[in-house]
Amino acid sequence: MVLRMRTKVNALPGCPMSMCMDLLGGLWTPELIWSLSDGPRRFSELRRDIPAISAKVLTSRLRDLEARGVLGRSVLPTSPPTVEYELTSLGRELLPAIRSIVEVGSRLLLRDRPAG
Amino acid sequence: MVLRMRTKVNALPGCPMSMCMDLLGGLWTPELIWSLSDGPRRFSELRRDIPAISAKVLTSRLRDLEARGVLGRSVLPTSPPTVEYELTSLGRELLPAIRSIVEVGSRLLLRDRPAG
DNA sequence: CTGTATCCCCGTGGATACTG
DNA sequence: CAGTATCCACGGGGATACAG
After folding, report:
1. Per-residue pLDDT reduced to its tens digit, B81-93
2. B25 touches strand D (CB under 7 A)
3. Is the Cβ pair A25, B7 closer than 8 Å?
4. Mean pLDDT of chain B
5. Global pTM?
């Protein structure tokens, strides 16, 4: 049921396209950022948003995007621990690109199934 | 000198995002489509546009995108053979997403180097 | 709940040599 | 010019088990 498509994107370093694709290019990265666009979300919520993602990859993406300044991580002093992730202003700058991708995809869906 | 960044993108099948990312997600795919946005280009021109791409991968992308209806291939009856690739209407529908990616990337570049 | 550590698979791309 | 064929290495991701 899970589509295991593997793709890779690349771009010349220092050019506009790679600036953006370097941030969006990881497995599940666009979905992850998209899930955070509505506001802060917790680890387990993200897993539910994207059921096909493994804990390992989710952690990996989260750490990576945090290191790149795309999202912030805050640990709430509860028991058991609660961790919230939310987009930074840098992360929010990526949303127009993702939105455009979704829009184009929607148009392609209509194209494929004009009557469906 | 060549950046060998490897990334993978994924998306749930049948959703708008994957409709678009399935088409953009391959290594060098956005650059390739972007190179074709100005008009038809030949194999060797594409290699010059994207020096870091290998012939194998370029061929692979070209065949794949042709099969998906993103671009068309025409062999001109010259000697030696001339082959031209150009975006189809489907391929042109992807351009807004790529343009948005480039715009966001440009903004990120300015953000990183506000003074140049 | 929020992760980390380990092992292993295998897809994907590079290099090289060759072809019509 | 425009590819194809072959071999190989790499490294990312899945599964599983474990931890604070």
Report:
1. 999 999 999 999 9
2. no
3. yes
4. 89
5. 0.91
